[in-house]
Write a structure and sequence with these properties.
444 residues, alpha/beta, Rossmann fold, 2 domains, seven-stranded mixed sheet, five-stranded mixed sheet, 14 strands, 48% helix, binds (2Z)-2-iminopentanedioic acid
Length: 444
């Protein structure tokens, strides 16, 4: 495999897709030796076939705001690869969303879903809709307008979307409601549904909980425990909430959360009341964390900065792609960080990853660490297919099993002497299943 040539060709073809190119480069870099040692992948042109999405839909979303003004947004669905199962992956609603964003996420999702052990292909979608300052009714109307178009391309055996940034239980509800009305069926075409209407009881917590289970496995390789450790979390959405909840429950001290406005430093650590307040902040649609410092004495708000300057044992980026730069990594390393686990997709810039690896700091990529979310989505699909509802304890036990198996696979393919290269391990393990399936399925 000529990595340089494949990347150069992709760059010529998609010069305006830096995120997609970044995601591809990371994967190709870490699998190249494995591919070289197994010539069948070159023979079947697997890499060239994997970097090209199966198909992409772009559509117009028209809706009317509370003032009676017509609004127009762009909607997308990228169906990346369905070699191992129906396309599966979230919908992101954020003003920054472009095709580039969803191609990078769909590519990552293909490897992540392969790692989960469940039969799910990779896809991603979303829109440039901005919920900030929008009323409940406006959000509902947008979701309905978006689904009126998206429903043409998805189905319970074809493509099963879920949430991502800007899409939580509320948005899934509005989209599922209109889907049911249009199609007159109850097949669970979205995951992340409410527990009363086909959803998995543990889906809201799953990404954050799974991430902390993965961190526990990482720590165990060095005979360490999360109990008593300090943790910096970035973001304050659903994923950050799940991670803060589980880390706190296991005896860690979560001292930071953050938003687009800056970060909160709370040396006493978070507790149940503080964690619950994150959800209140999120549902206000204002996208700020500053009010936390007013509400909880002893904490402070640091405007315009990221939490990576705080001395902590564990850093969990839970906000968005490329949120942790090389300089941030250097600060964390200088302050003695022991472990960094990406919970956001591609949360760390390449320079940051190299810095952690060079300093032999335990580091794991999003596609392994945050795979608990889509795993529980996969379990929700199973429950819908068999028309059953499982208890939280059943789902949690399966989530534990899946995260342990992902960790095991990362170690199997990522061991470099005493150090575990989780990036390499996750990429190779994720690659093998999809690549071998593509060969077995023929050129089609
Ligand atoms: O990035 C992700 O894995 C998600 N946004 C969740 C996807 C899913 O289908 O649950």
């Amino acid at each position: 495999m000529d990595v340089k040539k494949i990347l150069a060709d992709l760059k010529t073809k998609h010069p305006d897709e830096p995120l997609f190119l970044q995601a591809v480069e990371e994967v190709l870099d870490s699998i190249k030796d494995y591919v070289k040692a197994n010539p069948k992948y070159d023979q079947y042109k697997i890499i060239e076939r994997m970097v090209e999405p199966d198909r992409i839909f772009t559509f117009k979303v028209e809706w009317v705001d509370d003032k009676g003004q017509i609004q127009v947004n762009t909607g997308y669905r990228v169906q990346f690869n369905n070699a191992i199962g129906p396309y599966k992956g979230g919908l992101r609603f954020h003003p920054s969303v472009k095709l580039d964003t969803l191609k990078f996420l769909g590519f990552e999702q293909t490897f992540k879903n392969s790692l989960t052990t469940l039969p799910m292909g990779g896809g991603k979608g979303g829109s440039d809709f901005n919920a900030k300052g929008r009323s409940e009714n406006e959000i509902m109307r947008f979701c309905q307008a978006f689904m009126m178009e998206l429903q043409k391309y998805i189905g319970p055996e074809t493509d099963v979307p879920a949430g991502d940034i800007g899409v939580g239980g509320r948005e899934i509800g509005y989209m599922y409601g209109i889907y049911k009305k249009l199609r007159n069926e109850n097949t669970g075409v979205l995951t992340g549904k409410g527990s009363g209407w086909g959803g998995s009881i543990l889906r809201p917590e799953a990404t954050g909980f799974g991430a902390v289970y993965f961190v526990q496995s990482m720590l165990k390789t060095q005979k360490k425990d999360i109990k008593g450790m300090t943790v910096a979390v970035s973001g304050f959405g659903n994923v950050a909430w799940g991670a803060a909840t589980k880390a706190t429950e296991l005896g860690a001290k979560v001292v930071c959360i953050s938003g687009p406005d800056g970060y909160i430093y709370d040396p006493a650590g978070m507790d149940e009341e503080k964690i619950a307040y994150m959800l209140e902040l999120r549902s206000s649609n204002n996208d700020v964390v500053a009010p936390y410092a007013k509400k909880f004495k002893g904490s402070k708000f640091v405007a315009g900065k990221k939490p990576w300057e705080v001395k902590v044992d564990i850093a969990l980026p839970c906000a968005t792609q490329n949120e942790l730069a090389k300089e941030d990594a250097e600060k964390l390393i200088k302050n003695g960080v022991k472990l960094v686990a990406e919970v956001s997709n591609m949360g760390c810039q390449p320079g940051a990853i190299h810095a952690f690896q060079k300093a032999k700091i335990m580091f794991a990529p999003g596609k392994a660490v945050n795979a608990g979310g889509v795993s529980v989505s996969g379990l929700e699909m199973s429950q819908n297919a068999e028309k059953l509802s499982w208890t939280a304890a059943e789902v949690d036990a399966k989530l534990h099993q899946i995260m342990a198996s992902i960790h095991e696979n990362c170690v199997k393919y990522g061991k470099e002497g005493k150090y575990i290269n989780y990036v390499k391990g996750a990429n190779i393990a994720g690659f093998i299943k999809v690549a071998d399936s593509m060969i077995e399925l023929g050129v089609c």
